[in-house]
Amino acid sequence: LGDPAFAVACFERSRRIHAERSHHREVVAADLSIARGREELGRFDEALAGLQTALAACRREGYRDLEGQVLVTVARIRLRQGRAGEAAGLSRQVLAMGDELPRDTACWGGLRLAEALAVQDSVTAALAVLDAVAAAGADALVELELGLSRGRLLLRLDQAAAARSQLANVSREAARNGLN
Questions:
Q1: Euclidean distance between CA atoms 170 and 42, whole angstroms
Q2: Which residues of 31-62 are buried (b: 16+ CB within 10 A; e: fewer)?
Q3: Are the CB atoms for 15 and 27 separated by under 8 Å?
């Protein structure tokens, strides 16, 4: 993010402008960015409070796509707080939304679920989730995240050769996409 405090201030201003003009979708988008900045600053409670407001707006206005993004973001914060069970439940809610979500939002939900399962010592189940997400297809960034997660999980299973191969593939793919 560069300077998360500056980013939060800018997005808060953006949020105020959109709220004044009743641009509800843009308010939720700003809330997501504010939450990310607050998360980076370690202000989890403030981030979660803003996300709860955004979630209520999504449900009131019928913004299922943004609802999925909000739930994925809450799951990420819950993981950072060590609350893997809650993160898994939120991620399952995202996956249950199915075709109502953009493909990448569902993929991020699957990634968060895999992370939560891995924290709960269900590495094999986490790998199965990653396989399901990968089979559904995703954009390049999500594919790289899937590969990184898979590599980390293989290491936890003491499959060093498979993990090395997986992570080498991710590195090559990142370079090919200019992300190294």
A1: 29
A2: bbbbbbbbbbeebeebbbebbeebbebbeeee
A3: yes
Assigned token pair, 161: 């050769």
Do the Cβ atoms of 25 and 63 come closer than 8 Å? Answer: yes
Q: pLDDT by residue (tens digit) across 143-178? A: 899 999 999 999 999 999 999 999 999 999 999 988
Sign, CA dihedral 105-78-50-39, equals negative
* DSSP assigned state of 10: H
Say how far apart CA 123 and CA 146 lie, in whole Å: 14
Tokens of 140: 């390049």
Total-model pTM:
0.91
| Residue 178: Cβ within 10 Å count | 7
The three-point CA angle 115-121-125 to 5° equals 65
Do 67 and 58 meet the contact criterion of CB atoms below 8 Å apart? yes
Burial of 98 (0-12, 13-18, 19+ CB in 10 A): exposed
Spatial contact of 137 and 103, defined as CB atoms under 8 Å apart? yes
Name every residue whose Cβ is closer than 8 Å to that of residue 90 and which is 6 or more positions away in sequence.
Answer: 71, 72, 74, 75, 78, 112
pLDDT (average), residues 37-53 = 97
